[in-house]
Design a protein that fits this description.
The chain is mainly alpha-helical and 197 residues long. It is built from six helices and no strands. It has helices at residues 17-49, 57-87, 93-118, 130-136, 141-177, 180-195.
Length: 197
């Protein structure tokens, strides 16, 4: 009788060893982003319980929507996108398409991380970011408590952004080393040749 041990490691360890660390960094960046989405909801929940502090039920609702959508979509769209792109070791169309999927979704992730970090109240206060710190600290004791929670949120999104930028840089380097740029040029040249006929 043999038994297979439970594997609790992320998918990164199933890749080639030289890629493992880079994909593991992406996994960590995703974990921090997931924490940030959930912590943001917690901050807004406590703010509503304490009397609003400038937040409305609509802000809380959109924070919940961001968390319920952002966590699984970011996992599927950019983390799994990088994982699948890293599996493709032969340069060609499929590797280029996999990296294109990753970079497109990753840019949206970086934009969202910036928005959550700063929390500019342009379309609502659904992000407990840097702007929230100035509004919450000094209002009263409960406001200070919320300010500390918002500070944790800002640190989480700052760490997420830093990790994500490193992951993006490493993915771009791997894309270039794997012949992705040359494949894009070949595709462009083929498209120009077809258009000129």
């Amino acid at each position: 009788h043999t038994s297979t041990p439970f594997n609790s490691t992320p998918d990164a360890f199933q890749l080639h060893p030289d890629i493992n660390l880079k994909v593991l960094r992406a996994y960590r960046a995703w974990l921090v982003a997931a924490f940030g989405y959930l912590w943001n909801v917690l901050v807004l929940t406590f703010a509503l319980i304490g009397g609003g502090y400038g937040y409305t039920f609509g802000d809380w609702f959109f924070a919940v929507v961001f968390a319920l959508g952002g966590v699984p979509i970011s996992f599927w769209a950019w983390y799994r996108g990088l994982y699948f792109a890293s599996q493709k070791t032969q340069p060609g169309f499929f590797q280029t398409a996999a990296y294109a999927r990753f970079f497109l979704n990753f840019l949206a992730h970086v934009g969202m991380a910036c928005w959550m970090l700063v929390g500019v109240p342009v379309v609502g206060d659904m992000c407990a970011g840097i702007f929230s710190l100035f509004e919450l600290f000094g209002s009263d004791n409960y406001g200070d408590f919320l300010g500390v929670m918002a500070l944790v949120n800002v640190v989480a999104w700052g760490a997420c952004l830093g990790l994500s930028l490193r992951v993006g840089r490493e993915a771009l380097e791997r894309f270039k080393e794997g012949g992705g740029v040359a494949e894009l040029r070949r595709g462009r040249d083929a498209g120009v040749a077809l258009a000129s006929r």
